[in-house]
Design goal:
29% of the residues lie in helices and 23% in strands. It is α/β, with parallel strands linked by helices. The protein folds into four domains: 104 residues, Roll (Ubiquitin-like (UB roll)); 243 residues, Domain of unknown function (DUF4445) (Nucleotidyltransferase, domain 5, 2-Layer Sandwich); 152 residues, Nucleotidyltransferase, domain 5 (2-Layer Sandwich); 124 residues, no CATH class. Strands 16-15-14-17-19-18 form a six-stranded mixed sheet, sandwiched between helices. A hairpin with an 8-residue loop joins β12 and β13. The longest helix is centred in the C-terminal third of the chain and has 25 residues. It is elongated, with a radius of gyration of 30 Å. The termini are far apart.
Length: 680
């Protein structure tokens, strides 16, 4: 009695015996191997490409002969002629098993492809999007079997893809019949499965095999900026990214100002809802245009945001979030149709998924950061700070995770700064001040050259020097402290006291002149005493929030610090430490996660498993409410000093010695001024 051939799949290692003539795709499905197919084995989608391996495999205990698979056939030849197959590749639906064989499933043929995150993290995400493409052959109508076209579509999906039931909106029903007939009863559907037991929903339908792709938007809806990543739902690749200012800024720069606007102005909440939805539509239009795709191909959107933005986006009055106990209307995840939220710039039937919120002031954006950075899986104690207008802070390890929010305001993003602007070409993003000469040099967005390097003027010719962005102002304040131009209280000295004419008087205070191109019609960029105060307030709130979580955990230091946020990647660790934005730690233990909230949104867009994971995770995170914690104000006041009034920052002291000037506000800023007051 002959033994059926052994089929071994790599990299999964799954194996089984199958009768001669079994298609490789069939063997893969029966073993649960991750081998993709949209066309259901008809040889037209090419998703099931495999690479047979020949020779002796002692690891698997098998020798593979050259004729282990059936011969190359006309279907494979036709596909190769039309689109090309990589050398050694076969179509799994066409190649059949003849003898023992080892078959490799390349990454691009796996359904759950791994998308490796940025270099700072080794975590990978299995591609398992809620919305996927399915090609089916639908039975033609038969007078003897009086069933509707939709019912026969459902029957085809059940028969060919084991999908038990489907539903669809009326707008999909209205286009179903012409598409079926145009495709000669072969169609591709985009099906949204959800993850909470919902009946799969048909989002879109195309005649024949649809090969123009399927896309989703991952949106980080911040208080100041809205960032979006257009993501390929097949591969997880980011096709295009874009961002705009949140138009709600005109109603208030911080969250409580917007809540107040809603309280004081009847209909104000609806006005802000309309503004932010229009912004998302604008962003979606721009990103589809940039990627050169039809906006109808954007069939899903995942949004993360803080609780106030969450309510305003959904059209819920945020008034309860402005007063204790800061109750959310709902903290659960939400799935709804795009048109329910007036999101009209994408597919009309697109689904929108909003991550769950952690608590009244810690929102879906913090949940997204937790999903991206996984503090609960960390062996060491990690502090994660998502720097923004409303900063989210997480502290945790395998023993548990704490979370809070801190109202830092928009200064870190360049707002409320005299020469401040958003991060755009021409904005100063990095600055160094010589401690001896007190002269600055800087770098602007759009060029890698420093201002004192040859070719700088030519390199920035298109944009010029336009202002200073968030990372630039953070470095500027820290550099002023390191150069001895500003004391620990944040007071800047006079030209006489500091020895540099770049310190210019402004009323009773002084400013530091960074760049002056007024002779050529350009800007005069300074760091004012008001700018420093804005940064002090922001960084004090940030530090105080982190310190509260450390108190709750009963620790005085953390093992690691991760800076997240849109410009987290652009903040120098040293400058953040000098400024006192973060607790003292070894600089090698301070890393950047970039826009972790946006990354978390993209993970949720690409993975149903991740959605279920974060919905469980938020229930285990312990929330600390800064607004009612008495020690918050105490920590805030101590953190006003740069870097801190009482903390010694021993790790920082190992790498730099900060000068100790003492400039007196209201005088000339030097010793002479102080002597005059003592005599008086």
């Amino acid at each position: 009695m002959s033994t059926d051939p052994l089929v071994v799949f790599t990299p999964s290692g799954k194996r089984g015996r199958f009768p001669v003539g079994t298609p490789v795709l069939t063997a893969a499905r029966q073993l649960g191997v991750d081998l993709d197919s949209v066309c259901g084995g008809r040889g037209i989608c090419s998703k099931c490409q495999i690479t047979p391996s020949y020779g002796e495999f002692s690891k698997h205990g098998v020798t593979v002969a050259e004729d282990a698979l059936s011969e190359w056939n006309s279907v494979e030849q036709r596909y190769d002629d039309k689109r090309g197959l990589k050398a050694g590749r076969r179509l799994g639906c066409q190649a059949t098993v003849q003898r023992d064989v080892v078959i490799d499933v390349p990454a691009e043929s796996q359904v759950h492809r791994q998308v490796v995150r940025k270099a700072a993290s080794t975590r990978a995400v299995e591609m398992d999007p809620a919305t996927r493409l399915y090609f089916v052959e639908v039975d033609e109508p038969d007078m003897h079997e009086p069933t509707g076209d939709f019912e026969r579509l459902a029957r085809a999906l059940r028969r060919e893809w084991d999908i038990p039931a489907i539903t669809a909106d009326l707008s999909l029903m209205s286009k179903l019949q012409p598409v079926l007939r145009k495709g000669k009863w072969q169609v591709t559907v985009a099906l949204n499965k959800g993850h909470a037991g919902d009946t799969p929903r048909v989002i879109e339908i195309w005649p024949g095999l649809h090969e123009a792709g399927l896309y989703g938007l991952a949106i980080d809806l911040g208080s100041t900026t809205v960032a979006a990543h257009l993501t390929d739902l097949d591969t997880g690749a980011v096709i295009a990214s874009s961002g705009i200012m949140n138009p709600q800024i005109r109603f208030g720069e911080d969250l409580m100002s917007r809540v107040s606007y809603a309280m004081m102005n009847p209909g104000g909440d609806k006005e802000m809802t309309r503004a932010v939805r229009e912004a998302i539509n604008t962003l979606a239009e721009e990103i589809a245009k940039e990627a050169d795709i039809s906006a109808d191909l954007i069939v899903e959107t995942v949004i993360v945001c803080n609780p106030v933005m969450h309510h305003l986006l959904l059209g819920i009055d945020p008034v309860e979030l402005g007063q204790a106990p800061f109750a959310l209307a709902t903290s659960e995840s939400i799935t709804l149709n795009a048109r329910e939220m007036d999101i009209t710039a994408i597919n009309d039937r697109a689904r929108i998924y909003i991550l769950p919120c952690i608590a009244g002031h810690v929102g879906a954006d913090a949940a997204a950061v937790a999903l991206a950075e996984q503090p609960g899986a960390s062996d060491d104690l990690v502090l994660i700070i998502d720097v923004g207008t409303n900063a989210e802070i997480l502290l945790g390890d395998k023993g548990g995770v704490l979370a809070c929010s801190s109202p830092t305001g928009p200064a870190f993003e360049g707002a409320q700064i005299s020469s401040g602007q958003r991060a755009a070409p021409g904005a100063i993003e990095a600055i160094r001040i010589d401690p001896v000469t007190k002269e600055p040099r800087f770098r602007v967005i759009g060029s890698d050259l420093w201002s004192d390097e040859e070719g700088f003027d030519e390199a920035i010719g298109a944009s010029g020097i336009t202002g200073i962005c968030g990372s630039g102002i953070i470095e500027a304040v820290a550099e002023l402290r390191m150069a001895g131009l500003m004391d620990e209280n944040g007071l800047m000295g006079s030209a006489e006291a500091t020895g540099t004419p770049r310190m210019v008087p402004e009323g009773r205070t002084h400013s530091y002149l960074v760049h002056d191109s007024t002779d050529e019609g350009g800007p005069r960029i300074t760091v004012t005493q008001g700018d420093i105060r804005a940064i002090q307030l922001a960084k004090s709130a940030l530090y105080a929030g982190a310190r509260l979580l450390m108190d709750e955990r009963g620790v005085d230091k953390v093992d690691r610090v991760v800076l997240a946020g849109a410009f987290g990647a652009h903040i120098s660790n040293l400058h953040a430490m000098v400024l006192g934005m973060i607790p003292d730690a070894h600089l090698s233990k301070v890393t950047s996660a970039g826009n972790a909230a946006g990354t978390g949104a993209r993970i949720a867009l690409c993975s149903l498993k991740a959605r279920a994971e974060i919905e469980q995770m938020v229930r285990r995170i312990h929330k600390v409410e800064t607004a009612i914690e008495p020690k918050f104000q105490e920590h805030f006041v101590a953190a006003n000093a740069i870097p801190h009034k009482t903390e010694t920052f021993p790790e920082l002291a190992k790498i730099t010695t900060l000068p100790s000037p003492n400039f007196n506000a209201g005088s000339g800023g030097g010793d002479e001024g102080r002597r005059r007051r003592r005599r008086g």
